[in-house]
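Consider this record:
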Amino acid sequence: MGPRARLLVPALLTPTLAMAQQVVPVLRYDPPANWYRSATVNPAQYSSNEVNAGIQVYPFRPIPGDIEQLMQHDLLRSWIDPQFQESNVFAPPAWTWGTVPGAEAVYSIHFGEDIAGVIHEHVRVVIVARGSAAIVDASAGAPASWQRAAPAMEAMYRTLRVETAAATPEAVPVPPAATGKAGKDIAELYRGSRMRYMVDLQRGSAYGKTAAAQHFYLFSADGRVYRFYDVPSGDLAQFDFARAAIEDPENTGSYRVDRGRLVISMRGPQPEILTVPVPRANRLEIEGVVYLRE
């Protein structure tokens, strides 16, 4: 992201709640070329095929206060998935700021993490738009790995742009074909197992392994769908799909039934359309993973 420098923070206007509710920002980008993308979708995870380096992309979420104060407090560590959180920042971070099309402000935080005497490089890019912030978090297991991975990272950064979508339930269209009997037949929670990259919490964010983890698809009778890892909590019969569409758009979408096929449309920075056979005998197969109806 360029040489280290002191951050010159521009004055930011605080968006009103009404503005935040009218539209929600969506971060678009071209993934790093020839990097491996994990099946995990929140955050989106990319790993270099050449060196020990990775990038995680976190979708926009509402900012609970002043973004500059939050960054100064903990570098937004609390926004980072636990498996990628830094544990031992060894020196004051270097702050810079830049631009991304459609964003109101862009902050870059460059810092090092000391893990058993080895410096792990980090760059955390925070993109602010309409009262929300997204994060592109990059790291490498050693300075030499950082140098090798930097060109692919820079190429990805240059493609970052912010677009907007309606922040109402209509942002996830409800296909008529998914309602009625077809929707009632499909509506339920489905449990499967997918491979997920898990960081070694003792060694740091650049170390880890891929392991099987529980993965779920939740379908509503009116044509909405949400996918997620880990054991669900709360009353899923009261699940708020409209809120999920705003806070976690990459894992939220809609579905319809078309001539015996289930067509799932997922939103997010890289929209997906999954076309699979409709569930039979409480069994649903998506991308080679078998999900069983709960």
User: Anything to note?
Assistant: Confidence is low (pLDDT under 50) at residues 1-21, 167-178. The first helix runs from residue 17 to 22. Helices lie at 17-22, 67-74, 143-157, 180-186, 241-247. The domain at 17-166 is CATH 3.40.1000.10 (Protein Transport Mog1p; Chain A).
